[in-house]
Amino acid sequence: MNIKQAATQKEKKDLDRLLWAVLWKPLKLPRHIRDSFKLETPQIELIAMDDKVMAGVLVANWLSEKEIEIRHIAVKEEYQNASIGTGLVKALFDLLKEKAPVQVQTIARNTSSGFFTKLGFKAVGNRFNHPKFREEGIWLQQMNVVVKK
User: Fold this and answer.
1) What pTM was estimated for this model as a whole?
2) Residue 8, exposed/middle/buried by CB under 10 A (0-12, 13-18, 19+)?
3) pLDDT in the model for residue 29
4) Where residue 47 sits, what CATH number does that domain have?
5) Is the peptide bond before 101 cis (omega within 30 degrees of 0)?
6) Domain that holds residue 107
């Protein structure tokens, strides 16, 4: 598995399609729902490639010089439980070490909070609902970890 930053327009379009197919299509959310979640801050887009197949993606946005948020992470169903998500997060941590310490936060779905806990993230505050996900029984939890050198 090769993990790298998305560089070409094709890679960025494929990243967007994968996010929709894994995260939002199963919830019957509109194709371009990601646009409503976007932040207008610099971002890091990582892709995990299995030969020529994009197996997983991660999108993180800088919130400040020492704080970044993992906005989206998705792995194709046939690649799940193969440590691709873990590899994507660890690749992000490796990129952040040169600016360390950096606080990494995410808003995890109840279905992924265990994954983030295994990577050292801690829950912050109470869990909460978002109107777009409540109907599907999905609740959210802010989680943080600090990346050190």
Assistant:
1) 0.93
2) exposed
3) 84
4) 3.40.630.30
5) yes
6) 2-147
